[in-house]
Amino acid sequence: MPRNYKIKWFDELESTNNEAASGSGYDNLSVIAAVGQTRGKGQRGNTWSSEPGMNLTFSAVYRFPEGDFPAGRQFCVSEAVACGIVGYLKRSGISAMIKWPNDIYVGDRKICGVLIENRVRNGSLTCSICGIGLNVCQTAWDQSIPNPTSVSLECGCAPGDLKQQLPLLLEDIDGYMSVLPSDHKELSALYRSLLYRRDAPHAYRDCTTGETFRGIIRDVTEKGTLLVEDGEGALREYAFKEISYIL
Ligand code: BTN
Asked: pLDDT digit string (tens) for 29-52?
């Protein structure tokens, strides 16, 4: 039985993540969606650009009672959101993979970006703001945007009305979110099975040293770090921002 998300649409916001984090007191399962964002936030301090009215840009708010969700397991939220998005795309006939930690790729093109902002108190996760930018109808981007794609481009169809699609996407995400933090084993296995570039040699940059190397993604740890086997067969462990993919 799907839980009851409360979706609030805005014509324009600076960033749905910022609105969700504002003093407005959005409670558990609130969803802030915007037709357009003026300063959408991406990962690594980047901006997220999305043509107004063409894509889904929204943030879902999850609140957890203090003591329920150990902070050490917060990566499960990334897993749940990413697996939910992949599931939603699958129902549209699109086979997507997860580029660690939570970009969603179709082949070598990015269809969706996720920015999760967590609040931790006394060792437990108390709030997670899950910001999602899914390219739906957009078919052209500024040249500065690396390798984008969209639902329209991938399935050659015109997806239904964005406002009707959002509850369907939330339902897929909630299938995984609603069982956290207790039931995470199956989810973690699914996440790992969907990892982009897993078990195949590719080029990476170690951002801590600047070194470019060929490596093989082997696994992701429970805390969410990436394990990459290097040319000498050694396993290197990377936190977010410590490694970049060379595409
Ligand atoms: C990335 O860099 O891949 C993450 C992009 C996340 C974009 C979404 S759009 C809705 C939400 N609000 C924001 O300001 N950012 C996220």
From this structure: 999 999 999 999 999 899 999 999
